[in-house]
């Protein structure tokens, strides 16, 4: 790979436009374009900036041979800075999804007070609309670090060893969040039933929806965080499973999860059995829209 190809790949990996990279390096966009088309090489101080910015060595930038991002046999080189950026992006994504889902679930709080239905109805629909808007906005964000999820990764030995140790410590925290979320979801209603006489049935129902929303948010945040770290620590297994199942691996989880949510809704009356089906339909609709937009942009 040439220097220009490497610079262009690193820029796209970070999600920078040529204008944004030029601003960070305090040069013109034309200079960045010239470098990426191999019509020039930056001065040494700019090379050092690029090296520090993307977490790669000068040796990697300037040598004609090195880890080739597009070569599946060699794999895709990932620095610790890139790993941290990928995980930060995934955590931000998880937080937005959790907030959106939490708002949709907690909107039912405003339907628990029968004496104030007319007054609270706008809050019910407003909260739900905001939650749906957050989810749609999140799903339509440009995909960043997609190379990490689609290529066999190459690491410096010290980097991956350090990260795996850190990941093992993080996993205990995430598992704790999942356990807490499951306990809140399964036993929150039972606890509220015991204090129903003290707080009233309407307040009890409202708190039940709030606990459900909080438990689902914990599960989403912890689940996405574990999945993101597994992409790094168990990269070979992840790529093999992804290639065997195809592009839309999430469908293998979404369909049985929807069926389970429908059955729980029917058995416990915790929510309408129609809600999980509507949610799955919305996710599928958003996915189709994204595919159409990506196809149009690629032409």
Could you list some keywords that capture this structure?
1% strand, two-stranded parallel sheet, 299 residues, elongated, 434 Repressor (Amino-terminal Domain), mainly alpha
Which H/E pattern describes the elements? HHHHHEHHHEHHHHHH
Low-confidence stretches: 66-73
Number of domains: 2
| Spatial shape | elongated
Structural class: mainly alpha
Largest sheet: 2 strands, parallel
Strand content: under 5%
Give a short summary of the structure:
The chain has 299 residues and is an all-alpha fold. The protein is built from 14 helices and two strands. The chain has helices at residues 3-14, 18-25, 29-36, 44-54, 58-62, 80-106, 117-139, 146-150, 157-194, 196-199, 201-233, 235-245, 250-268, 274-298, and strands at 76-77, 153-154.
Structure overview:
The protein is mainly α and 299 residues long. The protein folds into 2 domains: 3-62, lambda repressor-like DNA-binding domains (434 Repressor (Amino-terminal Domain), Orthogonal Bundle), CATH 1.10.260.40; 82-246, no CATH class. Helices cover 77% and strands 1% of the residues. It has helices at residues 3-14, 18-25, 29-36, 44-54, 58-62, 80-106, 117-139, 146-150, 157-194, 196-199, 201-233, 235-245, 250-268, 274-298, and strands at 76-77, 153-154. A two-stranded parallel ribbon has the order 1-2. The chain is elongated and about 75 Å long.
């Amino acid at each position: 790979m040439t220097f220009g190809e490497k610079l262009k790949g690193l820029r796209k990996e970070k999600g920078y436009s040529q204008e944004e990279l030029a601003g960070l390096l305090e040069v013109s966009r034309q200079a960045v374009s010239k470098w990426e088309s191999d019509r020039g090489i930056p001065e040494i101080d700019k090379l050092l900036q690029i090296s520090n910015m993307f977490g790669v060595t000068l040796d990697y930038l300037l040598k004609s041979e090195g880890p080739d991002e597009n070569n599946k046999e060699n794999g895709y080189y990932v620095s610790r800075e890139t790993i941290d950026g990928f995980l930060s992006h995934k955590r931000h994504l998880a937080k937005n999804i959790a907030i959106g889902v939490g708002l949709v679930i907690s909107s039912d709080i405003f339907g628990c007070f029968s004496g104030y239905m007319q007054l609270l109805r706008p809050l019910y629909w407003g909260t739900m609309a905001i939650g749906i808007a957050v989810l749609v906005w999140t799903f339509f964000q440009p995909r960043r670090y997609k190379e990490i999820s689609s290529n066999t990764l190459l690491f410096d030995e010290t980097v991956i060893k350090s990260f795996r140790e850190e990941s093992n410590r993080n996993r205990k925290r995430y598992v704790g969040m999942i356990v807490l979320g499951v306990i809140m979801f399964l036993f929150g209603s039972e606890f509220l039933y015991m204090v129903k006489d003290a707080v009233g049935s309407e307040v009890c129902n409202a708190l039940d929806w709030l606990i459900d929303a909080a438990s689902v948010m914990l599960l989403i945040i912890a689940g996405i965080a574990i999945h993101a770290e597994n992409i790094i620590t168990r990269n070979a297994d992840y790529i093999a499973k992804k290639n065997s199942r195809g592009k839309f691996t999430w469908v293998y989880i979404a369909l049985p999860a929807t069926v389970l949510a429908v059955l729980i809704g029917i058995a416990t009356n915790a929510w309408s059995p129609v809600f999980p089906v509507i949610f799955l339909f919305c996710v599928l609709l958003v996915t189709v829209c994204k595919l159409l937009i990506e196809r149009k942009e690629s032409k």
